[in-house]
Design goal:
Elements: H1 3-19, E1 27-33, E2 41-42, H2 43-51, H3 56-63, E3 68-71, E4 77-82, E5 85-90, H4 91-102, H5 109-125, E6 135-136, H6 152-160, E7 164-168, E8 171-172, E9 177-178, H7 188-191, E10 214-220, H8 221-227, E11 236-244, E12 250-257, E13 260-265, H9 266-273, E14 280-286, E15 289-292
Parallel strand pairs: 2-9, 4-6
Antiparallel strand pairs: 1-10, 1-14, 3-7, 4-5, 7-8, 11-12, 12-13, 14-15
């Protein structure tokens, strides 16, 4: 190869090097929506539906497809792991300690009642500790703070729904919930990877979320590479989405490196990068230029759907009417994804 050819090749390689993001200069921009895994009931969405006059039964029928309301077995006791000790708590007392911790008492009664029924059902279907205990007292299951957290309003919601649970085909249904959906919930198998699809945990539009749940995170390539340690081959170059769920939540992606790629799930990306949810889009900023990262999921841009008519629901007893909306704090708690298993019907954990 002559000197002119060598010079031309050197120039071409230099140009390619300039095109590739430099780890020290580039910024990874992540834009997304929602807070939590997106499976089941959105607490913020329940607030919105209650403020629009929906009953607790209608809210639950919306989020848990094809379900009805039934009754919990009498004298049920929940085994709660508090620290290193297991407490045996009567079901209704347990639910009072959960509702007060998971949802602001200032929210409409219909939302609090929906939370009470979901929390009661979750306790019946949970199996966090096998034969030793049913639920953790923290976000690994659902937050339980006991009598110290109880309020007159949240207790009234528990009393109004005493014994009511969510059922699918005559059996208690695992009632996962979370803080905010971003406008659409997700099929359970797309968030709880490895789980069996459950017919009551299908993605549904969430038209009445009451607060903007969009978020944006920026970090240097060096920070992103450190958080993705073990997945970056060579120098970090970005993230390419390969598969999304029924909503824009990421199921599978690839971490791009100068020496190859590594597969990564959406939940692992969320955990590694410290995101609010797997509903995320990636861009790279170099100087004033911002370039969207490759997205091979084929998922079109999300377009919110208009509110639908309240669904039919079969209550165990006549549901209470929603109270007048009042100023509310943001959602607290929710449910955490369970470890992958053959089925999610015997629940994993709960939290936002």
């Amino acid at each position: 190869m002559g000197r002119p050819a060598i010079a031309s090749l050197a120039c071409a390689l230099a140009a390619l090097a300039l095109c590739a993001p430099a780890a020290g200069a580039a910024t990874l921009i992540i834009e997304g929506a929602g807070d939590g895994h997106g499976v089941g009931m959105s607490q913020d969405g329940a607030l919105g539906y209650a403020q629009h006059g929906w009953s607790d039964a209608q809210i639950l029928a919306h989020y848990y497809t094809g379900t009805t309301l039934g009754q919990a077995p009498a004298n049920t006791v929940v085994k709660v792991l508090e620290g290193t000790k297991v407490a045996r708590v009567p079901l209704e007392r347990y639910v009072r300690g959960v509702v007060a911790a998971e949802m602001p008492a200032s929210w409409p009664m219909a939302a609090l009642e929906a939370q009470a029924i979901a929390s009661r059902t979750y306790a019946l279907t949970a199996d966090a500790g096998g034969a030793r205990f049913d639920v953790y007292a923290d976000t690994r299951s659902q937050v339980y703070e006991g009598a110290a957290a109880e309020t007159a309003t949240s207790n009234a919601a528990v009393t109004a729904t005493a014994g009511q649970i969510v059922e699918y085909d005559g059996q208690p249904a695992a009632t996962y919930y979370f803080a905010s959906s971003g406008g659409m919930t997700e099929d359970n198998e797309n968030s709880f990877l490895g789980s069996t699809p459950e017919p009551w945990l299908r993605a549904v539009p969430d038209a009445y979320e009451t607060s903007a749940s969009d978020w944006r995170v920026s970090m240097s390539f060096a920070t992103a590479a450190a958080r993705l340690a073990g997945l970056v081959k060579g120098a970090f170059r970005g993230i390419e989405v390969r598969q999304r769920g029924a909503s824009p939540r990421i199921a599978a992606a690839e971490v791009l490196g100068s020496r190859g790629t590594a597969q990564v799930s959406g939940p692992e990306l969320e955990a590694r990068l410290g995101l609010d949810s797997t509903w995320a889009y990636f861009s790279v900023k170099n100087g004033a230029s911002v370039t969207r990262e490759p997205d091979l999921s084929g998922q079109p841009p999300f377009v919110p759907k208009p509110p639908e008519a309240p669904p039919e629901a079969t209550p165990a007893s006549a549901p209470a009417t929603a109270s007048t909306p009042s100023a509310a704090a943001g959602p607290q708690g929710g449910t955490q994804a369970p470890a992958p298993s053959a089925s999610t019907s015997a629940a994993g954990g709960a939290a936002a």
